[in-house]
Amino acid sequence: MLQQLHYWPRTYIQVGCIAFLVAVALMPIAIRLLGRLGVLDQVAANKIHTRPVARGGGIVIFIAFAVAVLFPNYRDNPMKGVLLGSAICLVVGAIDDIRGGIPATLKFFTLVGVTVIMSQYGVLIRVAGSYPIDLLLTIFWVVGVTSAINGIDNMDGLAGGISAIVSTMYLVIALQAFIAAGTETSLSWFGLLAAGLIGSNLGFLVYNTKPARIFMGDSGSFFLGFTLAALGVMGEWSRNPVVSFSIPMLILGVPIFDFIYILVARVIRGDTRTIRQVIDHCATDHLSHRLVWMGFGQYQAVLFIYLLCVVMGVSGVLLRNSTSLVDTALALFQGLTIISLVFILMAIAARKPREQFAEREPVASATVSDIRETDNHGFKGGKS
Predict the structure, then answer these.
(1) Would residue 209 count as lying in a domain?
(2) CA pair distance 62, 261, nearest whole angstrom
(3) What is the pTM of this model?
(4) Which DSSP string do the residues of 200-215 spell out, in sequence order?
(5) CA 104, CA 379: separation in Å to the nearest integer?
(6) Does residue 244 lie within any of the structural domains?
(7) For residues 375 and 379, what is the distance between their CA atoms, to the nearest angstrom?
(8) Which runs of E-coded beta strand occur in the chain?
(9) In which order are the strands placed within the sheet that holds 53-55?
(10) How many structural domains is the chain composed of?
(11) Which of 74, 175, 250, 340 has its CA 20 to 30 A from that of 329?
(12) How far is 87 from 84, CA to CA, in rounded Å?
C-alpha cells in the first residue's frame, strides 16, 4: 500500500521533469531549424518584435509532452483518444505555421473530427443520455476552449503560462482524488497528461518569455487548446451535473470569458455581421491588449493575467472539494468576482482612447501601436 501511495506522485514528478528537460533541450534545435526553413514570424507594423522570430515551438511542446506521458508505459483507453486527437491537431497547426495560414473552416472541421474520434475512446460530455446531443455539446466545448486558448496566444509567455496554470489545477485535482482514494483512480492518467503539459510548457517558456526567441504558433495553441478542452471533458468532477460543469469552466474561466466577451463586443460594434466574418475577424482587443491600453507594460499584463488564472483555478479546485452548499456558494462567488473584475477592466479599456494610455508611458505606446498579433477570436491565432 505504501508503495502504491508513492507511485503516482513520483510518476507525476518524473513525467513533468522529463517533459521540461526534453523541451529545454530541443527548443534551441527547433529555433535554428525553423530559421533555416524560413518558418518565421516576420517584423510588421502590427507586431512588437524587432527581428524575425521562429514560429512553430508547439511542435517541440508536443514532442516533449508525448515523450514524457508515454514514458511510464501507462495506457488507458481515454488517454489514447486524447493523444491521438492532440497529434492530429498538432499536424494541422504545424501545416498552418509552415504555410503561413490555412482556411479557418479546415481547422473547425478538424476539431469536429478529433472530437468524434475522442468520443469513441469514451471522452464525452454525458448529460443528455443521448450520444448525438452529448457529442454536439462536446464539440461545442472543444471548439470554444480551443478558440479561447488560440485567442490568448498574443503576448510573449501568455498562452504557455496559462496552459501551465490550468494544467497545474488539473494535476492538483488528480492528486487529491488519488490521496482520498488511497489507490489508483480513473483520474490517474488525467494527472499524467496534466503533468506532461506542465513540464513541456514550462520548458517552452524558458525561450518564450519577453523577448521571445520562439513562438508556439498555431501548432502549439491548436494542440494545447484541444488537449486542455479534452481534459476538461473527461475529468470526473462531481456527481452534481451543475458542479461538474462549473469546475472546468472556472479553471479555464479567464480565456473562456475573454473569448466570449470579444465575440459579443465585435458583434455589438458591427465589426462582425456574418458567421464567416466571426471566424475570420482578427483584432487586438483581448484582455491582454486592453490592459496595455490602460498603461500596463506587456510583462505586467501577462503576470496580472497569470494571477487571475490562478485565482480562478483555485476556485475550481475549491468547488470540487466543497462538502456543503455554503462551500459551493463561496467557491462560485470567488470565481464570479474575478470574472466581474475582468469584465470591468475590459469595459473600462474599451471606453478610453488607446492613444491616451499610449502617451503615458513610452513602453506602453510601443506595445499599443506595434502589438505583435494578427489576433483572433479563435482560429487565426497570435504567434506567441
Answers:
(1) yes
(2) 30
(3) 0.88
(4) HHHHHHHHHSSSPSEE
(5) 6
(6) yes
(7) 9
(8) 40-41, 53-55, 214-215
(9) 40-41, 53-55, 214-215
(10) 1
(11) 175
(12) 5
